[in-house]
Write a sequence for this structure.
């Protein structure tokens, strides 16, 4: 039988279907005791509309995997940061054409050029500070002209 | 489970509607956003005062989010459209968390929906600044700047609140508000330090909203930040006196401007027409 943690970790994110909630660092904790499973998740942004969907997906997958008593709880503190996106998650974002966030070093963000996910050029510019979702900004590559999204350091 | 199925998990689970799980579209689960966060108010924290604090801050976010949502389809460019929708969504998320916490502290079994949709105007505790309808894009940028700078400084202090839930909500919101403030500052500078026409519009916007800032109790950090932006934008900080209280009462006491009734009518009419409906 697949463990509760593996099952919970395999749930795709509704906004980034190529990544799982474990890749994104949204999955905080999975506990199993006497057949009951408690999953703890964390929202990326306060208004993230995907939270209810993720909770429903978690219950559905875990129940299908044979876990009967499933509870999903929310944890706000410490607040989610893009630093929790795993190296695997960053690779998958880039493969999906979305520039991954840079690493935050302590409280200060190290300003690194955002590389074009298509041609790799660091010569890119920000078109808009927000994009299709709150967690992304819109960029364009100055070399190959590709417009692309970038997961903002948060 | 096949790979095919996993890719469409989000869509498949929409079909899994059970008796106690009514959902009709993506994102409308509307489950308690504080699920499992712990309802208990810790010892040493006055529940009534906590409820009042959360209600006021939740109402600021709810009403201002509604005003920002009204810009959707009216923004000058698609990029501003998505920015404003995202800022409105962040504030709506903050409102949901704060109203839920207010309901828990109050102890009258009122949830976020009951507080948002079934209170009357005099029970709302938002500052009057958030009620105004923006006359133009300059007013939008100027108010967003002042509101975000004020709220950011306030929430920065709340990260050390004696209620750990409110402190956690504040810590999340601080990151969002920083981004909102910087977005608004960029626009105020662009308009203020732009053409004669955009400068006049930006100054007029600041003059129009300044009386409403009397209720904000801006701290030194927020005031210094605003001064810096105004200087870069070549704008003059207005010296207009604050909007007078009505019979000694302001927005925080439940006394609002004429605009508030219209906002609530739009915000609450559907929920009130169908009070038994489930999302």
């Amino acid at each position: 039988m697949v463990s509760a943690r593996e099952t919970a970790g395999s749930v795709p994110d509704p906004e980034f279907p190529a990544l799982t909630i474990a890749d994104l660092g949204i999955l905080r904790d999975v506990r199993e005791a006497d057949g009951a499973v408690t999953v703890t998740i964390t929202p990326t942004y306060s208004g993230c509309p995907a939270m209810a969907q993720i909770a429903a997906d978690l219950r559905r997958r875990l129940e299908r995997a044979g876990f009967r008593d499933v509870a999903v709880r929310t944890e706000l503190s410490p607040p989610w940061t893009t630093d929790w996106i795993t190296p695997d998650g960053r690779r998958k974002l880039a493969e999906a054409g979305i520039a991954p966030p840079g690493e935050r070093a302590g409280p200060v963000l190290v300003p690194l050029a955002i590389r074009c996910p298509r041609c790799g050029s660091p010569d890119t510019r920000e078109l808009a500070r927000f994009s299709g979702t709150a967690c992304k900004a819109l960029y364009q590559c100055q070399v190959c002209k590709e417009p692309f999204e970038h997961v903002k350091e948060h | 489970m096949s790979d095919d199925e996993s890719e469409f998990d989000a869509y498949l689970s929409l079909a899994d509607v059970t008796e106690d799980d009514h959902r009709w579209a993506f994102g409308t689960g509307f489950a308690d956003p504080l699920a499992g966060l712990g309802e208990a108010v810790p010892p040493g924290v006055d529940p009534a005062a906590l409820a009042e604090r959360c209600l006021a801050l939740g109402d600021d976010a709810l009403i201002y989010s509604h005003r920002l949502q009204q810009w959707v389809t009216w923004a000058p460019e698609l990029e501003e459209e998505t920015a404003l929708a995202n800022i409105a969504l962040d504030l709506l998320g903050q409102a949901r968390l704060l109203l839920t916490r207010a309901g828990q502290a109050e102890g009258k079994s009122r949830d976020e929906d009951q507080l948002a949709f079934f209170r009357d105007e005099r029970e709302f505790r938002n500052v009057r600044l958030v009620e105004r309808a923006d006359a133009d894009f300059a007013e939008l940028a100027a108010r967003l700047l002042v509101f975000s700078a004020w709220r950011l400084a306030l929430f920065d202090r709340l990260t050390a609140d004696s209620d750990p839930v409110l402190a956690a909500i504040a810590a999340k919101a601080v990151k969002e508000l920083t981004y909102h403030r910087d977005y608004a500052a960029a626009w105020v500078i662009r308009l203020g330090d732009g053409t004669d026409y955009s400068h006049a519009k930006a100054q007029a916007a600041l003059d129009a909203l300044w009386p409403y800032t009397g209720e904000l109790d801006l701290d030194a950090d927020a005031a210094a930040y605003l001064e810096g932006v105004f200087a870069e934008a070549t704008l003059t900080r207005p010296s207009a006196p604050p909007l007078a209280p009505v019979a000694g009462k302001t927005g925080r006491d439940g006394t609002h401007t004429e605009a508030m009734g219209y906002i609530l009518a739009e915000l609450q009419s559907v929920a009130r027409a169908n009070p038994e409906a489930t999302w």
Q: What stands out?
A: Chain A touches chain B at residues 10-12, 14, 17, 40, 43, 45-53, 55-57, 60-61, 64, 71-80, 127-134, 138, 152, 154 (CB under 8 Å). The longest strand of chain A covers residues 27-33.
